[in-house]
Design brief:
This protein is of the alpha+beta class. The chain has one domain: Gcn5-related N-acetyltransferase (GNAT) (Aminopeptidase). The protein has five helices and ten strands; from the N terminus they run ββααβββαβαβββαβ. Strands 1, 2, 3, 4, 5, 6, 7, 8, 9 and 10 form a ten-stranded mixed sheet that branches. β1 and β2 form a beta hairpin. The protein is globular, with a radius of gyration of 16 Å.
């Protein structure tokens, strides 16, 4: 993890002018604020989701986790955790949370780009997630071929997505997605 930060210009919307936010590496000291943002963004139903249960007791990879600060307020966060798919090590992206007042301003994509760039620079090979294909396609994620990977609980197979950081790693990742790596 580095102490460096990056700036992110938030898109102008009908209700807000363009603003400059700061993207920082998440640290354990941010945990309470990040959890509050996740609660506000996803509500109590997040605890029942398969991806959440896969992350439980699976420590975050702080080297890649990022937060977005605007005027000293946490407005976004992305988390990565380690998983293994068959014999292939990978990262599980999520949750990706953006404060409701700041959606559609580029925060989510900015957080993912910076976190994934850090992962690639450190030699990580593959990132998987459960999410909305059209949204994540803009960040290079593609649907996992049906039946190639399985989550340890119910997941809509059309929402299981992956992004190769090293070409050819998606085809090597087959089987049950489990914590660790």
């Amino acid at each position: 993890m580095t102490d460096s930060s990056e700036t992110l210009t938030l898109r102008e919307t009908a209700g807000a002018a363009a603003q400059t936010a700061v993207i920082l590496a998440e640290t354990p000291a941010h945990a309470e604020a990040v959890e509050a943002l996740n609660a506000r963004t996803f509500g109590p139903g997040r605890f029942t989701r398969t991806a959440y249960r896969l992350r439980r007791n699976n420590p975050p990879v702080y080297a890649y986790n990022r937060i977005c600060m605007l005027d000293e307020q946490l407005v976004g966060a992305v988390c990565f955790s380690r998983v293994v798919i068959g014999a292939q090590r990978a990262l599980l992206l999520g949750p990706l949370a953006v404060h409701p007042d700041y959606k559609h301003r580029g925060i989510g994509h900015g957080l993912m780009r910076i976190g994934i760039d850090a992962a690639r620079a450190s030699g990580e090979e593959l990132v998987v997630l459960v999410g909305d294909a059209p949204y994540y396609a803009r960040s290079g994620f593609v649907p996992v071929p049906r039946g190639q990977m399985r989550m340890p609980g119910p997941v809509d197979p059309d929402r299981l997505l992956a992004r190769e950081l090293v070409p050819g790693t998606l085809e090597k990742a087959a089987g049950l997605i489990r914590p660790g790596g």
